[in-house]
C-alpha cells in the first residue's frame, strides 16, 4: 500500500482550541497535500506544500513538512464547529503522478 | 465553473444489474480519477485517465469498467457487483496528471449493492 498514516485517528476539542493532526508517508515526495471531507461528501483541497518548503500558512491553517522524517502536520488554530470534518493528507505515488490518501483524522469541534 | 458533477447521487442495484456512474467537469482538466471510499476509511484510488487515455488501473476487478468518452466526461460501468462493492464512489479531476496539482472532487455516488 502506498497509503500514509495519520494520527490521531480521532480528535475532539472545544471551539476556540487548536487542533493538530500528523501525517507520515512512505516514499520520497516533492509535495504533500491536505484535504477536508465533511461527512459523506466530496473532498475539498486545503493546502499544498512542496518539498522545499518547511512551513506554509493559509488563513487559520498551518502546515509543516519534514522530509527527513517523512512527516507533515496540519494545525488548525481557533477552531470552529464548522471545522468538524475528516482531514486527509495526500502524497504522490511511486511514479510521482497520482496521489494516495492517508488514513485520515476525524475532527470534532464542540461548540 | 469549478465543479465536478456526479450522477446519480444515490444508486441501489442488484447483483445481476448493469448500471453506470457519470462524472462531468468543464474546467478543461485533462486528468480524471475514480476513487472508492468505504465508511470511515480513506478514498482508495481505482482508475486514472490522462488526456482521455487510461493511465492507471489499481488492479480493480473487471466488474468495474471505466470509460472516458471525451475530455469532460468520465463514466464507470458496473456489472455483476457484489455487496462488498457498496461504497461512496468519488470522481475527481485535475489540470494535468501530476501529483502536485490540486484535485477537485465531486460529491460522490452512494452505491448500495443488494
Main features:
heterodimer, A: 111 residues, mainly beta, six-stranded mixed sheet, five-stranded antiparallel sheet, 11 strands, 0% helix, globular, B: 114 residues, seven-stranded mixed sheet, four-stranded antiparallel sheet
Overall description:
The complex is a heterodimer of chains A (111) and B (114). With 111 residues, chain A is mostly beta strands. Helix content of chain A is 0%, strand content 56%. Chain A has no helices and 11 strands. In chain A, strands 2, 4, 5, 9, 10 and 11 form a 6-stranded mixed β-sheet that branches. Chain A has a 5-stranded antiparallel β-sheet with strand order 1-3-8-7-6, with no helix packed on it. By secondary structure, chain B is mainly beta. Helices cover 0% and strands 56% of the residues of chain B. Chain B contains no helices and 11 strands. In chain B, the strands form 2 sheets. In chain B, strands 2, 4, 5, 6, 9, 10 and 11 form a 7-stranded mixed β-sheet that branches. In chain B, strands 1-3-8-7 form a 4-stranded antiparallel β-sheet, with no helix packed on it. The termini of chain B are far apart. At the A-B interface, β4, β5, β9 and β10 of A face β5, β9 and β10 of B.
- So what's the overall shape of chain B? globular
Distance between the first and last residues' Cα of chain B = 36 Å
Average pLDDT confidence of chain B is 94
Count of distinct strands of chain A:
11
Element pattern of chain A in H and E = EEEEEEEEEEE
Q: Strand fraction band of chain A?
A: over 45%
H/E order of the elements of chain B?
A: EEEEEEEEEEE
| Tally of helical runs of chain B | 0
Number of strands of chain B: 11
Number of helices of chain A: 0
- Strand percentage of chain B, roughly? over 45%
The percent range for helix content of chain A is under 10%
Largest sheet of chain A: 6 strands, mixed
Q: Uncertain runs of chain B with pLDDT below 50, 5 residues or more?
A: none
Instruction: Indicate the low-confidence ranges of chain A by residue numbers.
Output: none
* Secondary-structure-derived class of chain A: mainly beta
Instruction: Indicate the overall shape of chain A.
Output: globular
Q: Average pLDDT value of chain A?
A: 92
Amino acid at each position: 500500500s502506498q497509503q500514509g498514516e495519520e494520527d490521531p485517528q480521532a480528535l475532539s476539542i472545544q471551539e476556540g482550541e487548536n487542533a493538530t493532526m500528523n501525517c507520515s508517508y512512505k516514499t520520497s515526495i516533492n509535495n504533500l497535500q491536505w484535504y477536508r471531507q465533511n461527512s459523506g461528501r466530496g473532498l475539498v483541497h486545503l493546502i499544498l506544500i512542496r518539498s522545499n518548503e518547511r512551513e506554509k500558512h493559509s488563513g487559520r491553517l498551518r502546515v509543516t513538512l519534514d522530509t527527513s522524517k517523512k512527516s507533515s502536520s496540519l494545525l488548525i488554530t481557533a477552531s470552529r464547529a464548522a471545522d468538524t470534518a475528516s482531514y486527509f493528507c495526500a502524497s504522490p505515488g511511486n511514479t510521482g503522478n497520482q496521489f494516495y490518501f492517508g488514513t485520515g483524522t476525524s475532527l470534532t469541534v464542540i461548540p | 465553473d469549478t465543479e465536478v458533477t456526479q450522477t446519480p447521487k444515490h444508486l441501489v442495484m442488484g447483483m445481476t444489474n448493469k448500471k453506470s456512474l457519470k462524472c462531468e467537469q468543464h474546467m478543461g482538466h485533462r486528468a480524471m480519477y475514480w476513487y472508492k471510499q468505504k465508511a470511515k476509511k480513506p478514498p482508495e484510488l481505482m482508475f486514472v485517465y490522462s488526456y482521455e487515455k487510461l493511465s492507471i488501473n489499481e488492479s480493480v476487478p473487471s466488474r468495474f469498467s471505466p470509460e472516458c468518452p471525451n475530455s469532460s466526461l468520465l463514466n464507470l460501468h458496473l456489472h455483476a457487483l457484489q455487496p462488498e462493492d457498496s461504497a461512496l464512489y468519488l470522481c475527481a479531476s485535475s489540470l494535468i496528471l501530476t501529483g502536485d496539482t490540486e484535485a477537485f472532487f465531486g460529491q460522490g455516488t452512494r452505491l448500495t449493492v443488494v
